[in-house]
Amino acid sequence: MPLSRSLSMTSLTGVLPAWEEDELPVEDLLLFEVSWEVTNKVGGIYTVIQTKAKITVDEWGDNYYMMGPYFEHNFKTQVESCEPPNPAIRKAMDALIHNGCQVHFGRWLIEGSPYVILFDIGSAAWNLDRWKGDLWDTCNIGLPYHDREANDSLILGSLIAWFFKELTDHLGDKPNVISHFHEWQAGPGLILSRSRKIPMATVFTTHATLLGRYLCAGNTDFYNNLDKFNIDKEAGERQIYHRYCLERAAVHCAHVFTTVSQITAVEANHMLHRKPDVVTPNGLNVKKFSAMHEFQNLHSTNKAQIQEFIRGHFYGHLDFNLDKTLIFFIAGRYEFSNKGADIFLESLSRLNYLLRVHRNDVTVVVFFIMPAKTNNFNVESLKGQAVRKQLWDTAHAVKEKFGKKLYDALLKGQIPDLNNILDRDDFTIMKRAIYATQRHSLPPVTTHNMLDDSADPILSNIRRVGLFNSRNDRVKVVFHPEFLSSTSPLLPMDYEDFVRGCNLGVFPSYYEPWGYTPGECTVMGIPSVTTNLSGFGCFMEEHVSDPAAYGIYIVDRRFRSAEESCNQLTQFMFSFCQQSRRQRIIQRNRTERLSDLLDWKYLGRFYIHARHLALSRAFPDKFKMDPMAPLKTEGFRYPRPYSVPPSPSASIHSTPHHSDVEDEDDEPYDEDEEAERDRMNIKSPFVLNAVPEGKKQQPGESRN
Predict the structure, then answer these.
(1) Burial class, 374, CB count within 10 angstroms (exposed 0-12 / middle 13-18 / buried 19+)
(2) Positions of the region Disordered (predicted)?
């Protein structure tokens, strides 16, 4: 059965061209996807498998199953229990259940409603010592008793390998099985399945190498020393050698090895000693609005809600114009250096200096949304919101009284005397409200009480750069050390609504294998800053001719020093502050237009290609693919927006100006016309990362 070299995809709302190919005979195949985060949110992999579920179910129907660990609370709240549609799966489950190991089946209540098979680790823990012996006999990897996560991953892997053995024995030659394993926690299942020669095609995806994350967290000059690390020594010193061995063994056992980005592919080649066969970028489910103005309206609505919080948080010091205030934010795991919070704070200090020196009337309020250890809300923050609400209630009471008197006077045909329309009590109430807004301290830089205030990296660096929210500061800082929630008494907003209300997301990460945060900004039409060390940044450089014109600012952290990167980030933010309101609206339209690139309908093709390749390697007699043909992962390239002048300086003002002034020389712009022209100019498929023979790729050069 020959497999086509081209990749299939559906048409993306008419923006990216369709791609035709001979589809896999999914009715004669079973696809299993294994991850520790199936129904169990731990990190970014949960987002990957959850958002990808719908397009996979659409393609595979009832022949697609997810596998992971069973947690009672997650099962009761996220899974609808049901019977497996395939008798062979029921028999395989029964074989484990009859031997004292609990297995649960149902539909995961997410978009697409995929089937899930969940294994109860606790019910099988009595086999741990025996299974450790099996792992040692198989590949000489020993697991220490105190590493519970590694032990649990071995129990899960042993159950999965046992399940696949029972399943393939019942199925025979047809249908064939493809199993896709994510991250090292799923690795033992792959290692044991391959060592027992279970007939199935296997794919292993690493979303970030174990050792890479540890090394970067230690402020190592990671990317310039990739070829110099003694891998075994580094893993041993960090007491993760056994985990590293599981990860590396899984990588080399898989028929196909994939990573989520080109930058992680380079890392994996050095850390795990295997070059990835396919790069499988992470996508999102993009919900397009029928009219362009709809997402702009959402931005205005949610920004107004954030402004209400700012009014309360900065009460008594609200001497800046909220209509000329820009809202920046950074969000993610609290990895101070890896997520780039270190150079972000330094750049904010420099931005504050530039805005003050140029006497710019723009104010920037910056939110740090990173969960840290706290014991409660900050009293000053709660008081600020209470004062704001009290002022609102007072203003409304006076307004009602004023409005009634005005209404009565107009009914009588009189123009009321504005000096007498409010009595002395009204003025007393208003004066008391004004006095209530007085405060003798600066607005707090954090919304919560930190458990270890003196050692906290963000707070320590805020003290170092002196961003204390004083009246003279044009950059104000709010550290919210907790994930956002619509039930919060302080900032009652979900993360998605908060992002939509911001002006710019800033994610200058040093270690970011993919980077969902700037991707989420893009699909919501919010410009963002990323780096060429993040998978997202590299992906955009490959797919977009002029990322900055589309609101994707890419900081060079790979080929520049920290000082140069910091200056570049400062300049990006300062240039953004100089834009007029009209320019920001145009840029948001362009940013939102890139959302098709991040849609699983487009990015799902890379997973399809990986499955094709795995089948051709596992079952070469049934599924043919030319082994001499170069492995291709194809894509499209967005042109520079039609209305952007050839010189970047022509579209960005060189001197600060009133952010709401509409200049006569603003670039001509028609959203529908520009979108249509860009759609026509999208370049035909090209091979990612291909360098013409004889030409050496230069640092920072876009691969085209």
Answers:
(1) middle
(2) 639-704
